[in-house]
Amino acid sequence: MNFSSKLLENAVAEFAKLPGVGQKTALRLVLHLLNQDKPDVERFSHAISKLRNEIQFCRVCHNISDLQVCEICASPKRDHSLICVVEDTRDVMAIQNTDQYNGVYHVLGGLISPMDGIGPSDLQVDTLVERLKGNDVKEVIFALSATMEGDTTIFYLHKKLKDFNINISTIARGIAFGGELEYVDEVTLGRSIVTRVPYENSLSK
Ligand SMILES: [Zn+2]
Predict the structure, then answer these.
(1) Could you tell me what this protein does (predicted)?
(2) Domain ranges of the chain
(3) Which three-class secondary structure state does DSSP give residue 149?
(4) Dist. CA 88 → ligand 1 center (Å)
(5) Which of 28, 32, 47, 51 is most buried (most C-beta within 10 Å)?
């Protein structure tokens, strides 16, 4: 692409770094912003820099939060004896949207993937183990995608957690998830949480 302006070229180059955004789309977005009122564009860039600078991760569950402890972990209305283990914040949002779950969460921050060089130490595993050391937790539910990485992660975590006196369950693994939890429709996801099965039973299928 030949740009008539270095400023234009720089902005396009930044947008083109976003996932799924090619040069053409980046140019279209940048030209769109140029057509907006200046205060609107200010608000746009301010929201992004504020997000990056001020966002926190809940120190209990590691979900993205505006506070040190997120609203879910801080809520006395939630069942803190029930921890749902998920890959990332999109899964928390998807499960919250089902209105079928009233426990708390633990966000791993990824899945074990030897191919990508992601091992257990890259994930929030130790803090999950710490959370189980009190006697308050009765059940851990794995809600991870039905992929090789999801299965590997559950297998690993199960080994780590099995000596605690808790129930370990998993959302129905037989359902065709199409990969990521966030793409499952709310009814299916909600039902799979309600009808979760003990992890051992899920293996014998
Ligand atoms: Zn939290």
Answers:
(1) May play a role in DNA repair. It seems to be involved in an RecBC-independent recombinational process of DNA repair. It may act with RecF and RecO.
(2) 6-54, 76-203
(3) helix
(4) 12
(5) 28
Residue type, 116: D
What are the C-alpha distances in Å from 111 to residues 86, 119, 136, 144?
A: 9, 8, 26, 8
Could you tell me the distance, in angstroms and rounded to a whole number, from the CA of residue 13 to the centre of ligand 1?
36
Position 141, amino acid: I
Check the CA dihedral 32-38-42-44 and report its sign.
negative
**Spatial separation of the C-alpha atoms in residues 90 and 55, rounded to whole Å:** 15
Between the CA of 125 and the centroid of ligand 1 the distance, in Å, is 15
Q: What is the DSSP string of 91-114?
A: HHHHHHHHT---EEEEE-SS--BG
Residues with CB under 5 A from ligand 1 (ion): 58, 60-61, 63, 70, 73
Topology of the domain comprising 76-203: Dna Topoisomerase Vi A Subunit; Chain: A, domain 2 (3.40.1360)
Contact 111, 135 (CB under 8 A): no
Tokens of 198: 């003990």
pLDDT digits (tens, 9 = 90+) for 145-163: 888 899 999 999 999 998 8
Give per-residue pLDDT as tens, 59-107: 999 999 999 999 999 999 999 999 999 999 999 998 998 899 999 999 9
